[in-house]
Amino acid sequence: LARQSGPKPLEGRHVLLTAGPTREPLDPVRYLSNHSSGRQGYAIAGALAELGAQVTLVSGPVSIASPRGVDLVSVETAREMMAACEAALPADVFVSVAAVADWRPSSPADRKLKLKDEGKGPPALSLSENPDILSTISRLEKGRPQLVVGFAAETDTVEENALRKRARKGCDWIVANDVSGDVMGGADNEIALVTDAGVENWPRMGKTAVARRLAERIAEDLNGKGK
Ligand code: CTP
Ligand code: CA
Questions:
Q1: Would 227 be classed as within a structural domain?
Q2: Which ligand 1 atom lies nearest to the CA of residue 151?
Q3: How far does the centroid of ligand 2 lie from the alpha carbon of residue 102, in Å?
Q4: What's the gap in Å between 78 CA and the centre of ligand 2?
Q5: How many domains does the chain have?
Q6: Looking at the predicted structure, is the pLDDT value of residue 183 above 90?
Q7: In this structure, is residue 218 part of a structural domain?
């Protein structure tokens, strides 16, 4: 049974999306990462594909299956994610859902760090800043996607931080979510959408519902109804 007939609203559009955490190696067996499950990003990728978009999903390591009809590119580190995004451009839309690790160990060891190495005690962690994928793509002079959407995971003063983050990143929209509760890895999400028209608070709903609603909004914007 076809749910919809006729042309889909994102037919012929290419959407690039990042999701999941990144993993930054400390040595061959250890890494720095975060609690992102990839669920919200994967749901958005699936919802965009259902609206007819060609979706490139650049994903860090997650334990969930790729949604139907998307092109999955699997990466581990932030630098690999950046390179995979650059390789996948051009795109009409970029949606940056990944929880990119802000820092990576500066000089990962090529052999496992040993507990009793030279009686030195715990090694000091020296960190370097990772590339900012969202800022880089937002500020492309040539070939910037026409709509760039960032996410902001905040634990406090959510709206205020989101407004500031939108300006700092140079993106068009920010989807802000409050991660002070059980959102990371959980089934629900409560978000605020920040656009140039202001802030919209969406009621708490499942991650699939958030994804569908966001995909619809993206389609409206591209087709000229949302502006
Ligand atoms: N992001 C990115 N590359 C990074 C860091 C973040 O593309 N190196 C993107 C995320 O995918 C998200 C947005 O930037 O869409 C905001 O990420 P967030 O971690 O909330 O913001 P930061 O600028 O890293 O600031 P902070 O972690 O201090 O809140
Ligand atoms: Ca961050």
A1: no
A2: 15
A3: 5
A4: 11
A5: 1
A6: no
A7: yes
Ligand nearest to the CA of 94: 1
Q: Which atom of ligand 1 is nearest to the CA of 149?
A: 15
Dump pLDDT digits (tens) for 154-172: 888 888 899 999 999 999 9
| pLDDT tens-digit readout, 102-146 | 999 999 999 999 888 767 788 889 999 999 999 999 999 999 999
Identify the CATH number of the domain in which residue 103 sits.
Answer: 3.40.50.10300
pLDDT at 178 (0 to 100): 82
Boundaries of domain holding 67: 14-108+125-222
Give the pLDDT of residue 155.
82
Q: Please indicate, yes or no, if residue 166 is contained in any of the structural domains.
A: yes
HEC string of the chain equals CCCCCCCCCCCCCEEEEEECECCEEEECCEEECCCCCCHHHHHHHHHHHHCCCEEEEEECCCCCCCCCCEEEEECCCHHHHHHHHHHHCCCCEEEECCECCCEEECCCCCCCCCCCHHHCCCCCCCEEECCCHHHHHHCCCCCCCCEEEEEEEECCCHHHHHHHHHHHHCCCEEEEEECCCCCCCCCEECEEEEECCEEEECCCEEHHHHHHHHHHHHHHHHCCCCC
Ligand nearest to the CA of 150: 1
Q: Note whether residue 114 is domain-resident.
A: no
Residues enclosing ligand 1, CB less than 6 A? 18, 78, 96, 98, 100, 102, 130, 132-134, 150-153, 165, 169
